[in-house]
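Now for one protein, fold included:
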Amino acid sequence: MTTEEVLAQVAAEVRVCTKCDLYKGTLHGVPGEGDPHAAVMFIGEAPGQREDALGRPFVGPAGQFLNELLAAAGLDRSTVYIANVVKHRPPANRDPLPEEITACAGYLDRQITAINPKVIVTLGRYSMARFFPDAKISRIHGQAKVIKGRVVLAMYHPAAALHQLTLKQTLIDDFTRAIPAAVAEADRLAAAGKLASQQPEAASDDEQSPPQQMSLF
């Protein structure tokens, strides 16, 4: 199957998914959207009210701020792919539960494998935890690590800056500095044949050390 076909199949399955109870009381599943051949993939946490209404990720206030952040990093929504670890809106926008994240994991696995991005940017602690188990976002935000053949970069969720205004400039600074550097490093590693084309699972025991900022940061 082509990348487009895989993503379309995942989207169709998400829209009728009943693997956990999150689908109850929601309007739409939110599989994700963007360039199927994106070099950079953003992974958030879960859809909110606006996302549930439209079936699209990051289209509410946090999405508007994300668009600004992308521009600061020299990117555009049309050139990246955006998804979440959970595909239906949790009630009252609560945090996703472990069993809900597990239920959706296969969808995200297939999306990552199909898109095969060079850089993955996690948005928020639940997305971060997939790649950096037990890490604290306050300590590793704006830092990147090569995990199973991809550059993975941890960031605060854009919504965090809407609730805690002191984080707004932190996010702007991280996006402006760290994302272009991560893309450049991924390109360098790819040219040297050091980026693998395999799916990045959660870090194994020997990969759980705290991520270090790359030298070019």
